[in-house]
Each structure stands twice: as structure tokens, then as C-alpha cells.
Amino acid sequence: MRITFQSQYRDTSAAIEKTSEQLLEMQRRVASGKELGKISDDPTAAAMGVAERSQLAGIDRYTRAADGVGSRLAIVDTVLTDVVSQLSAAQTVVASARGTSVTAAQRDAFEVNLAGIRDTLLDDLNTSFHGIYLFAGTASTTRPYTVPGGGTFATYAGNTSTVEVDVGNGRSVAVARDGSAISRGTDAQDLFETLDDLIAAVSAGDDAAMATGLSALQRAFDRAIAAQTRVGADMQAIDAQKLRLQELHVASVDRISKLEDLNMAEAITDLTHADAAYRAALGAVSTVSRVSLLDYMK
Question: Which of 148, 154, 178, 214 has the greatest number of C-beta atoms within 10 Å?
Fold first, then answer.
């Protein structure tokens, strides 16, 4: 069967078009560093990549949440450290104020100390973070304690609920706490009322009232220690969760890379082969174009 010039030219032109497309595709891959240029390149790998990116986005959201929660818990822990310190100092002051040998000047100094401790504790439990009160429960925009014009401390203005933030699947951590659980607990009166009563008892030299107040201070101290212990446990859990999220992030990024990223060494080799094939196809066309009619008549 005779092969005509037209059919031979058509075949070589098709070869050029095919090798040109292969060359362009390899150039795209090498330039982008990506194995997949479009979904049709590998629908299965593309679908898996979408799923991995969705999972990675979830991991990153949990990581940001954990970072934010960790910052809040660090502040709560610092505040509770000061609360514990102030309550310990208050117990020392009241214990020193007891007895008949205490002078009037000493009582005045003790009263001033207790008033200062009371005011510091008020500031502690009114601590806010980015406009959110940390000890107001879910009433996070409400100042937990205020002092009305008469000078008497107001009752707790927050609520007994807590605010929790998810930092992982099935893992949440409280970031806003019920301040009354620390300042009052199951006692009949609030810590600030207790301190006001103690100031009055120190002024009057009322040892019995001071003994009652000391017991109340001890209970408040125990509640603050228990709250700080819970915060410490949550902070440890956050650290462990952040480490786990970091490991999940690295693993997910690695899987995405295996699905989408190019093996550059192999790609450069394929690019070289594609370029050689393209040049060979061009050479074939050049040879066909030099063939004369007499060549076909032989």
C-alpha cells in the first residue's frame, strides 16, 4: 500500500501536536511544582486533596481556639495566684489583730491593710480580657462586682454558668468562670461582706467575730486553691492538645503534598524526554516537507 504525502504529513503534524501538549504540560508542572493542574488530571487524588484541606482547616481552627484559650487561662491562673496570696495575707492580718495587747494604732493599721486587700480582691475578680469579664460566668460583658455610692459592696452581678470553647473533637475548656463560686461558694455571705465585717471586728477588738471571719477566709482560700488547680489541669490539657494538633497539622500537610506536589527530579527527567520527543516530531515534519514528487514516483 502506497503512503501518500498528505497522510504522512497528517501523521507527523498529529505527532507534533501531541508532543507539544505533553511538553507544555511538563513545563506547567515544573513551573508550578504541582502534580495536579486541574481536577481531571486525577479526580480521585483531587477529591482526597479537598477532603484533606477541609480537615486541615478544622485543625487550624482548633489551634487558633487553643491559643486563645491558653492566653485566657494564663490570665485566670495569674489572677487566682494573687487571690490566694491576698487571702493568705488577710488571714495573717486578722490573726495579728487578735488579743488584748493590740494597740489602737495597730488596729488602725490592720484595718487599712484589710481594706487594701479587699479592694485588690475586688479588682482581681473584676479582671477582663479583651472586654470579656473572666469571672462573670456567661454574663461576660457585665462587671461582676461594683461598689455603689454608699460604699457597700454590691452582690455578685454575674451568673453561675461558665463559657467553654472547643479546642478539639470532644474537648472543650472553660474560659469564663463563676466568680461567686470563689467569693462565696456555699457560705451565707460573700467574701467582700466577710472582709467588711472583719474590718469592723478588728476596729472593735471583737475576737469572736474575728475568729468567725478567719474561718470564712480559710474556706475562701480553699475555694481559690481548688479553682486554680482546675485551671492548671486545663492549661496542661491545652498544651497537650496543641501538641496533638501540631502533629495532625504536619501529617495532613504531608498527605496533601504527596497528593499534589511534584517529584521535581522525575518531572525534570520527563520534561527532557518530552522536549526530545517534540524536537524529533519537528524533525520528522522537516524531512517530510523535503520529499519531492519524484520520490513518490520511483
Answer: 178
